[in-house]
Specification:
Elements lengths: L1 E6 L3 H13 L3 E6 L7 H5 L6 H4 L2 H8 L4 E4 L12 H7 L2 E4 L5 E2 L12 E3 H8 L16 E5 L3 H11 L2 H4 L6 H8 L5 E5 L11 H7 L5 E5 L1 H4 L3 H4 L6 H14 L8 E6 L2 E8 L5 E11 L5 E11 L2 E4 L3 E2 L17 E2 L2 E4 L2 E8 L2 H4 L8 H14 L1 H4 L8 H7 L7 H17 L10 H12 L1
Parallel strand pairs: 1-2, 1-4, 2-3, 4-18, 6-14, 7-8, 7-14, 8-10, 9-10
Antiparallel strand pairs: 5-15, 11-12, 12-13, 16-17, 17-18
Helix pairs in contact: 1-15, 7-10, 18-19
The protein binds NADP nicotinamide-adenine-dinucleotide phosphate (NAP).
Length: 449
């Protein structure tokens, strides 16, 4: 028997576990997660109104319920109070780290941390009921919001700001977030890219969805779009970019209807500073107009524009964080690896692997994690004979408990699901997420007692 620990129960962790048990009948997998809940960004990143993508949880559930897979929630690996990576390594033949990219890229500009300026991830964590999220009163006194960046996360947060409460009530949005969004007075949302429309990172399906939001106009300025040669002549663009450009062209030719809310898509503006209002909160973002540099990038023009915003969401990508005891490439934000095998000083570290964003960086859609996991699993199983020479000391769960760690079992997670269903009934809604550690752990413990 080959015992493997997978650290992280998001898509990459679940796909890794699935590949392992499918490809080798002697493998047993423990999927560890620092949270008592599984599914990583599918639970805590995919927007609540994207129910179809969320339903992927059913596929991931089947993996975690496989007879040779065991979910161990509430187990932190590395960090203060966590199980050291070296200790975990002793308990298993192999460990696969699928810990994602847990933080945000920084803009590195003056005023970035003014009150009212948040990373998109902070906002996403709040409306996703992540137990570590802060309730930043994001929407208090805000009428205009600026979202910096034009990737799919930017589209998610812009859409959530524009959605009416009636659309959100049937989702699993936590009640406090629903109440705050229902009371929101944000009517002006500007989503701003530093490069041109043909270089935006959002996918066409997500972009198009903005045009379907009730009582919301999507506004683009044809002259601004035309600063991008790829917009004027999209014939040489890859198909995905060409489709984006065509959607934007359609909006450019559609006059606003006077709807209650507007999402303005802006391009060729790079943020240079966040400006404070009289009370020391963010009041505007100063952008510099950019021009294409002919090499896919942009250069500044020395012309500036201030865009009003009482709420700024910086949506410029995720970043991996170092896990104590594992090597880390600070420039790439990933763990150095060769086909998923962790490299320490350029040399393969036996029994240590990575998959997902911590392996290749925060790019791609959920499905991209499947081939990524497959590659890592192929490496691991090719090493199996060597790994099997060093048997770990019995059932790792016994060892974890001896070390004072009592993981949340699958039944604990099922009890959380049950509590969320009951909360939804009491609120006259569908399932509603529990938003804090205490309620999650109380529900999980209920299963154990
Ligand atoms: P992303 O796709 O990498 O987009 C980041 C955006 O930030 C880009 O527009 C980038 O512009 C911009 N940016 C970076 N640094 C900047 C700076 N200093 N100043 C101004 N703009 C800056 O990241 P993401 O939106 O966080 O998404 C991460 C991944 O998750 C992506 O693969 C995405 O597709 C995926 N995702 C998918 C879905 C979905 O399928 N529905 C939903 C959410 C996320 P440049 O291009 O100029 O660098």
């Amino acid at each position: 028997m080959l015992r493997v620990a997978v650290v992280g129960s998001g898509p990459s962790g679940c796909y890794t576990a699935q590949c392992l048990v499918q490809q080798d009948s002697s493998v047993r997998v423990d999927v560890l997660d620092r949270l008592p809940c599984p599914y990583g960004l599918v639970r805590y990143g995919v927007a609540p109104d994207h129910e179809k993508i969320k339903s992927l949880q059913n596929t991931l559930r089947a993996v975690l319920e496989h007879e040779r897979v065991r979910f161990l929630g509430g187990v932190q690996v590395g960090g203060a109070g966590g199980l050291p990576a070296a200790r975990l390594r002793e308990l298993y033949h192999a460990v696969v780290y699928c810990v994602g990219a847990a933080t945000d890229r920084r803009l590195g500009i003056h005023g970035e941390d003014l009150p009212g300026s948040w990373s998109a991830t902070e906002f996403v964590s709040w409306y996703s009921a992540h137990p570590d999220a802060v309730d930043g009163a994001f929407l208090r006194d805000a009428r205009a919001a600026v979202v910096i960046g034009v990737g799919n996360v930017a589209v998610d947060v812009a859409r959530m700001l524009a959605r009416a409460a009636a659309d959100l009530s049937p989702t699993d949005l936590p009640q406090a977030a629903l109440d705050a969004l229902a009371a929101s007075r944000v009517t002006e949302i500007q989503m701003v890219g530093r490069r041109g429309p043909s270089q935006a990172r959002f996918t066409t399906k997500e972009l198009r969805e903005l045009g379907t939001l009730p009582d919301t106009d999507v506004v683009v300025d044809p002259q601004e779009l035309a600063l991008d040669p790829g917009y004027a002549d999209p014939s040489g663009l890859p198909a995905a970019q060409r489709r984006n450009v065509e959607v934007l062209r359609g909006w450019a030719g559609t006059p606003p209807t006077g709807a209650a809310r507007r999402i303005r898509l802006r391009f060729h503006l790079r943020p240079v500073e966040l400006l404070a209002d009289g009370g020391g909160r963010v009041g505007a973002v100063r952008f510099e107009r950019t021009a294409p540099d002919g090499r896919g990038g942009v250069s500044g023009t020395g012309r500036y524009e201030d865009v009003e915003a009482q709420l700024v969401l910086r949506s410029v990508g995720y970043r991996g964080v170092p896990l104590e005891g594992l090597p880390f490439d600070a420039a790439a934000g990933t763990v150095p690896n060769r086909e998923g095998r962790v490299l320490r000083d350029g040399v393969v570290s036996p029994g240590e692997y990575v998959a997902g964003w911590i392996k290749r960086g925060p790019t791609g859609v959920i499905g991209t994690n499947r081939p990524c996991a497959k590659e890592t699993v192929a490496s691991l199983l090719a090493d199996a004979a060597v790994l099997a020479r060093r048997p770990p000391p019995g059932d790792p769960l016994v060892r974890l408990r001896a070390a004072g760690i009592e993981p949340v079992p699958w039944a604990g997670w099922q009890a959380i699901e049950q509590a969320e269903a009951e909360l939804g009934v009491s609120l006259g809604r569908g399932t509603v997420k529990l938003p804090d550690w205490q309620s999650l752990l109380t529900a999980a413990r209920g299963a154990a007692s």
